[in-house]
Structures are given as structure tokens and as C-alpha cells.
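Suppose you are handed a protein chain with no further information: no name, no annotation, nothing but its sequence. What can you learn? This example shows the usual starting point.
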Amino acid sequence: MYIMKIINHLIICVAITILLLPACGTQGNKDVREVSGVIKKEFITGIKTVKPLSGNQEQELILSGKVECDPDKVVYYTPLVSGVIERTSFSLGDKVRHGQALLDIRSADISAFQTELISSEAEAEVAKRELQSAQALYDDQLLSEKELLEAKSKLRQTQATYEKAKSDMSLYIDKGQGVFAIKSPISGYIVDKKVAPGAPVSSDGTTLFTVADLSYVWVTANVYAGNLQLVKEGMAVEISALAYPNEVFDGKIATVSQVFDPEEKVLKARIVMPNEALKFKPEMSVVVTLKNETQRDCLSIPTDALIFDDDRFFVVVESTTGQFEIKDVQLQGHYRQHTYIRSGLNENDNVVVKNQLLIYAELKGK
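A reasonable first move is to predict its three-dimensional structure. Written in C-alpha cells, the prediction is:
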């Protein structure tokens, strides 16, 4: 995509410049790689040249992605009981606290839980006292070891039943007359809501609401097979979004999936991002930019110095003061405003980066 933009830009520039050429004769078909000469003073006024830079090649890879909740910090609330919603006290996107009442439900099942809690608590207390008596009798050698173990086992069973009933009731607040408030299981934000007053609920696995802790989120980038070799765990990335046009967020690839998504036909690269300011919203689309540096030493020049003509790339080089030549160059790649050169230039060349199109047109017309 990026190289096509460059090609289109250069084609337009060359097309405009060609209008300045004189009528073409047999010299117009001359191999431009051999063209050189002295240029008129009016063409070289204000020219600017730079020398190619030598260094490791850097490439920029742009991936599409989106923001997702960290699944380890998301709770999908599914009711364990049947009943009818009396009222709700939250909306989609609301911030909630752990233990905060979110909705009221009228349910006979919860009333049964409450009865079981009271009953199991009493049974556990009786079993505890029986064990104390059994222990005293055993110490006085008036009770067998088997009977003592049976008393201990009974206490464990009644305590387990009590703890289960206590756990079942921990999600509810008794408001009287068979109405109970359901509490938020964690602190976070409501990211999904599927309940309304008067709606029936059942223990069939339907999620009533979802609470997510958004202090950290996942940014998931789509990696196509052709780019797989360029994406590695630990690589630094830059994340941008339309919602924040003047901001760039720095991150690092935490993991790269080893299985292709069957629908999108891509691998997923995950970036874990802190989100204290809550700028990243679940399902928000983002652009992930990767900077890939190879250990290949090569020359680079400003992309604006390139001239695209006859399906090839050229540059204008000032060989001596006031004398110029055209060089055919082979490209290695692009990074931002720089292009890497595979062949056609050396470190001592003075590459023209201003008025090069006028000079190119003049040389080619000779």
C-alpha cells in the first residue's frame, strides 16, 4: 500500500515535468542510465543534495486491530435461580463497585437458599457441640475412637453444607418479602446488559450482565500469513486510533497465537495495555504499527528524491559542481520518509532532493 502511494505520487510529478520537455526525437529513446551533462543555470538554482545514509534497514508494518477486555478480569453473571426481575439500578457502561446492588429479583429459589443457610448453620453448631462432648468422653476413655471419628466426620459434613449455603447467599441481599438484590461480583464497568424490569430469569445459562475490570486491556492485532515472519514476541509497537488523532500509545507484543482464526484467516498478536485513563474502549478499532529492524547494512535516501519513470526508479546525482547524471536504482524497502537502496548508489554520491525533476527532464531530453 505504501509503495503504491509513492509510485502514484511520482508518476504524477514526472507527468507534469514531461510537459516541459521539447518535442522528442531519436534522443528521447536514449538509455537514461547513461545520460549525464551540464545543466543550464536556471535549472540548478536552489538545488539541494544529500549523501545516502548507511545503516540497518528499518521497515514499518501496519496492522489492523481492536481493543478487547482481559478475559481473566471479566465476570459473566449467570443466575443460579429462577425468578422475575423487579428493577435494575445500572446501565451499560456504568462503573460499579464490588458488592454493589445491581438489580432486585423476586425468587422462591433464593428464599430456599436462605432457609437452607439458617438450617445448615444450626446443624453445624449442634455437630460442633456433639464433637466437644465426644472428645471429652474419649479423653475419659468412655467413648471409642470410632465414635469420635464419626463425630468429627459429621461436623465436617455439616460445615461443608453450611459453607455452600453461605456461598450461595453471598451474592444476594435480603430485602424482605421474597425480594433479593443481586450484588456485583467485582469492581469494574458494565460492558453487557441483557435484563429489564419484569423479565423472567432462569438457571439455563443465560448471562444477565457482564462486569469487566478495564484497568488493563488487550489490543489484538491481525497478522496475515505474508507478514508472519516480521512479527515477533517482544517487538515494540505504536498504537493509534481515530478517537485520538494526535496521540500514539507505545506497547509491546506479549504473545502471537500459533493457530489461525478460522473466520478471519489471521493470527492474533496480543498487546497488553495499561488503561488507567480508560482511553481504550472494548471493541474500539485501532491501528498497530510495528518497526522492524534488520541486521542488513544498506544505503537509504529521502523518498522524495526518487523519480519513477518507465516502470523503474531513478535518482539525479551531482557528479561535479553543475554537472549531473541519472542513476537507475533498485529499491530494498521503505520506512516512513526514507527508502532503502539495494543497488545503483554509493556512499559518496550527492543525491539531488530539490529540483531533481526539472534536472531529470532536461537530461533526458538531451
